[in-house]
Amino acid sequence: MADAGTLTSATALEDADRRKAWGFVAPALLWAAAFFVVPFAFMAAMSLWKREGRELVRVWNFDNYARFFSENALFQGLVNSLEITVIVTVISVLLAYPLAWIIAERVPKRLQRMALILAILPFWTSYVVRSYSWLLVLSKNGVINQMFMNIGLISEPLELASTRTATVIGFVHFFVMLLTLTIYSNLIQLSPNYRRAAADLGANAFQTFWHVVLPLTLPGIMTGAFLTFVLCIGDYVTPQILGGNNELVLPQIIMLQLGRRADFPMAAALSIVLMLAVTVAYVACARWLKIERA
Amino acid sequence: MLRKISASVLSWTYLVLVYAFIFLPVAVLVLFSFQDGRLPVPPFNGFSLQWYEAVFADRKLMAALGNSMVVALASSVISVLLGFLAAYALARYKLPGSALQRGLLIAPMTVSYLIIALGLLSVLNALHVPLSLMTVGIGHVVINLPLCFAIIYASMGDHHINIERAARDLGASDFKVMALVTAPMLMPSILAAFFLSVTFSWDEFIIAFLLSRFDVTLPVEIWSMLRSGLNPKTNAIGSLVFLASVAVLFILELSLFGRTKKQ
Amino acid sequence: MTASVTIENVSKIFGAFTALDNVSLDIRAGEFIVLLGPSGCGKTTLLSILGGFLSPSSGRVTIGGQDMTYVAPSKRPTTTMFQDYALFPHMRLVDNVGFGLRMRGLAKAERDEKALGFLDLVGLKASAGKRPHELSGGQRQRVALARALAVDPDVLLLDEPLGALDLKLRRQMQDELKAIQKRVGTTFVHVTHDQEEAMAIADRIVVMNQGRIEDFGPPSEVYMRPRSLFSAGFMGEVNFVSGRVAAADASSARVETALGSLALPAQNFTASSPKAGDRITLTIRPEHFRADDRAEGPTVALGEARVAGSAFFGTHYRCHLQPCATDTRALVAHLPQSASVREGEIVPLAVRAADVVALPATGGHA
């Protein structure tokens, strides 16, 4: 009898606990459901509808996707996005890794935190302003053109803004900071004994780096590169300000659908394409992101 | 020895070059915010504070600044609160489908802001909900909630469980345990989540752009200023935001650094 | 291969902290040396200087007669087994063990064969294709040993390699380490803070404290005839009894203590020869007390003591004995299993004079 009694109260206690726990987690779940899952599902559904004139026609079809693949102006957006994103990711990693390495290895320990804070200080300009400030540097009467003309390197100002190069520079500027941060934290988490062990067993500095440090920091690099990819391919601001209206990227085209054409279904379909691109990138990286670390 | 020196020279040269690249646009931005003239490009005509005066005299800009603060603080408070409660429930109780719940809470982190904004915009349009600062705030909670949940959940180690048990054992109710024991123990990560949220919301453009109409946040207002092309006033507001953020950052760094030292 | 090591007047100063204070040490080729001491005593610093990871502030290190003071780790005939093993997590065991050979330019087939041989030596040949994270702590420790030995070093440096293992596994690995060292003949320099581990494996123990060598010798000598109070206390439980040399000649000395007076052979003064009037501290190991004076050999009576408490430890009774003559601190004595000890009982105290070591009272470890 006594046993049965405690058993019942234990279950009752568990039930009460569980009710409480649901109470705690419910607000967050409801928020995510109402303002993320439902809108996302609605958007996915809408990508299968159509706009005719000013009306939304709720007929299920794949016209938007078909148009995406057939209309060069749309498809080229994806190609531009992918090209720019890959270029930006590669350049950013190549620039950031040595910087992170120098901060972790060459800068004295007590100054490292300061060096790192300095390296990412421009993060704290507003995102829109950061792109704008590159315009000051790159535009026809900007810093670089005037400097080059003053020293006689060029006689006519170069068209640096409103180009793909400008977009890439703006992106690289942002992602070098981000990647320096992630790669640096990766490098200093590495036990110094790995390097000591390699040197102890006869490896020179280059061998130690190539056989030990680089493979061990690869997961961190890939994580940073993936983050770069995701943020870069989804960004509207930088290409809009720096790239101008040449070689539009996917987010710019999506915004065009919303603005001038008010074609929500098409914008939705393009967003789904954007998401698929990110998913493909994730699958491609996942192999690397998974490398075991003891 | 010679190789060592040349390697070191190479390192420092590289460091200086990349830092120059990183600081070039910011330096130009700040310098030409003091331009005595109408164009924020060389040559530098002289030092003037006229553009800062223009910024402070601009009612719309000041209103946008206030709007940004309201949205950033409100959305961050909600994100941290919801994130903390959810993290507490999922870390301390065995709930069915907890992996799925965690996945759902984290999911918005993997989706571009543009897509989140677009989804919300379509639903709000379909329901004929007018766009306002409120809708911007809702969107910002969507992007910051995953972050807050992840940070706080990660810091809820099992080693805290016994401390909470001890408190319960001594007669504290669930809410007292949460408020007097759990939250203070997790304060560093709660603060980190909060400040990160504020930063993200403060700087966020696309959601604020698509989900607002008459009352806009600062990045959106700056965006509309860009239509006038290169303008020292844009430099001035950009520099103000930058310098204020850096000041806050250093205060936080010093106070948080002091805290970690003490521990 | 194997080589001797000499350390001459080595000091290491970090800012205001002196980690090593004029240390000198001669290690013979093929010896198993243990550097023993509490954390912060300088033992790991000394090991790092031997490995080339640190340079001494002053002094000289030679290995096999060659000056190695400023030679880089990769150019030294030493390898180190790190405390956290530092096994490369992205490499299979055979590649970990073969890493040093690869750096020496050995072809893959040859180095794999050699690496497998060393994995065999530590009993892990069957796991050659695994990665470090698939192994247990003890297995990782063995791989680290194989990796360090694979490049055929003259001197192997071991930095608390057994620290992360549980007690039982630790005792087992001690035996294995010792056996492998005998087999390969390499000079081993092993750092630990565990005096039982030191006694289990060392040919000679170096006891270190505050950057200095306190004692150096075979385990039995360091234990039985410590040359400093610190060494006596660190090597095991010990009773300190202060006293004064009343008279001394070339062969023996008479010492006055609160427990009575006793005559000690002069060689029991391990730190310096006795002079009348010296203030000294006698060190007596708990197991050297005899509760009755009928025990083997000539003993010195130290009066009577009351049993203040006792506990049965399996191999012996550990007793707190309060000497009746004084109200000094209670002595700790290990009495045989056969002894009948009851609390409150009065027992006679005795020791063999040969077991008592007298050290200068300065430096007061009491």
Highlighted features:
heterotrimer; A: 294 residues; MetI-like fold; 2 domains; two-stranded antiparallel sheet; globular; B: 263 residues; mainly alpha
User: What's the β-strand tally of chain C?
Assistant: 19
Strand ordering within the main sheet of chain C = 6-7-8-3-9-10
CATH topology of the largest domain in chain A, by name, is MetI-like fold
Order of helices and strands of chain A: HEEHHHHHHHHHHH
CATH homologous superfamily grouping of the largest domain in chain A: MetI-like
- What is the strand arrangement across the widest sheet of chain A? 1-2
Termini gap of chain A: 51 Å
CATH architecture tag of the largest domain in chain A: Orthogonal Bundle
Q: Distance between the terminal alpha carbons of chain C, to the nearest Å?
A: 45 Å
Number of helices of chain A: 12
Regions with little confidence, pLDDT below 50 for 5+ residues of chain C: none
What is the number of independent domains of chain C? 2
Measured by residues with Cβ under 8 Å of the partner chain's Cβ, the largest interface is: A-B, 76 and 79 residues
What does it look like?
The complex is a heterotrimer of chains A (294), B (263) and C (366). In chain A, 77% of the residues lie in helices and 2% in strands. Chain A has twelve helices and two strands. Chain B has one domain (2-262): Orthogonal Bundle (MetI-like fold), CATH 1.10.3720.10. Chain B is built from twelve helices and no strands. Chain B has helices spanning 2-31, 50-57, 59-92, 98-106, 113-126, 133-155, 161-169, 174-185, 187-203, 206-210, 218-225, 232-262. Chain B starts with a helix and ends with a helix. By secondary structure, chain C is of the alpha+beta class. Chain C folds into two domains: 5-233, 3-Layer(aba) Sandwich (Rossmann fold), CATH 3.40.50; 237-360, OB fold (Dihydrolipoamide Acetyltransferase, E2P). In chain C, the strands form four sheets. In chain C, strands 6-7-8-3-9-10 form a six-stranded mixed β-sheet, sandwiched between helices. Chain C has a five-stranded antiparallel β-sheet with strand order 13-12-11-14-19, with no helix packed on it. Chains A and B meet through helix 1, helix 3, helix 4, helix 5 and helix 6 of A and helix 1, helix 3, helix 4, helix 5 and helix 6 of B.
